[in-house]
Amino acid sequence: MRLASIRHDGTEVPALVDARRGVVRVADLVPGFSGDALSILVDGRWAELEKLAADAPDRVFADRASVEFGAPYRHPRLIWGIGLNYVDHAADLSEQVPDEPASFVKGDHTVIGPGEPIPVPPQSSRTTAEAEVALVIGRHCRNVSEADALEYVAGVVAVLDQTAEDILERNPRFLTRSKNFPGFFSFGPEIVPLAELPDLAELEVSTVLNGQEHRTNTVARMRYSPAFLVSFHSAVMPLQPGDILSTGTPGAAHIRPGDTAECRIPGVGVLSNPVVRG
Question: Where is the Fumarylacetoacetase-like C-terminal domain (predicted)?
Answer without folding.
Answer: 79-276
